[in-house]
């Protein structure tokens, strides 16, 4: 017997692991169903696959930890964009001499792009600290 969802809503959440500092976001399709006995139940889908509720037992994809902070969507991506912008405007370039008033860059070809970064929890939450 094939069931169809009575109602499907779309929600997205941001997550930050309190163990390793990994941050990520995920969108979900939340299907509200009614079984043959009239009991309501909910099915969560992420990327088309059925997944457990992210609100009951969130698990860090990086370390497997279960102490995960759940936030509204956009919190992690906003911080990551701010940090990437900050990193892009302040990196120390290879072959750069910063000893004098002028900057001299050695002709070594194009500068390599920034190395992949593992986001730490303090990096992700820093913009939200009150001063």
**Strand line-up across the major sheet:** 4-3-2-1-5
Shape: elongated
- Please tell me how large the radius of gyration is: 22 Å
Number of structurally distinct domains: 1
- Spatial separation of the terminal alpha carbons: 58 Å
Helix percentage range: 10-25%
Major beta-sheet overview: 5 strands, antiparallel
Round the mean pLDDT to the nearest integer and report it. Answer: 74
> Which strand-content bin applies to the residues?
25-35%
Low-confidence stretches: 97-111
Order of helices and strands: EEEEEHEEH
Number of strands: 7
Number of helices: 2
Structural class: alpha+beta
Model description:
The protein is an alpha+beta fold and 131 residues long. It has one domain (7-96, 116-128). It is 15% helix and 32% strand. The strands form two sheets. Strands 4-3-2-1-5 form a five-stranded antiparallel β-sheet, covered by helices on one side. The chain has a two-stranded antiparallel ribbon with strand order 6-7. The longest helix is centred in the middle third of the chain and has 15 residues, at 75-89. Mean pLDDT is 74; it is low at 97-111.
């Amino acid at each position: 017997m094939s069931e169809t969802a009575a109602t499907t809503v779309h929600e997205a959440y941001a997550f930050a692991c309190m163990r390793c500092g990994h941050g990520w976001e995920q969108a979900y399709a939340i299907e509200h169903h009614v079984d043959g006995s009239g009991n309501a139940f909910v099915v969560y889908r992420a990327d088309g696959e059925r997944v457990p509720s992210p609100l009951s037992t969130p698990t860090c994809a990086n370390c497997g930890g279960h102490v995960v902070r759940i936030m509204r969507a956009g919190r992690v991506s906003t911080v990551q964009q701010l940090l990437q912008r900050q990193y892009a405007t302040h990196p120390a370039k290879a072959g750069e001499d910063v000893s004098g008033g002028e900057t001299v860059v050695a002709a070594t070809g194009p500068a390599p792009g920034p190395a992949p970064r593992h986001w730490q929890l303090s990096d992700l939450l820093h913009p939200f600290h009150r001063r």
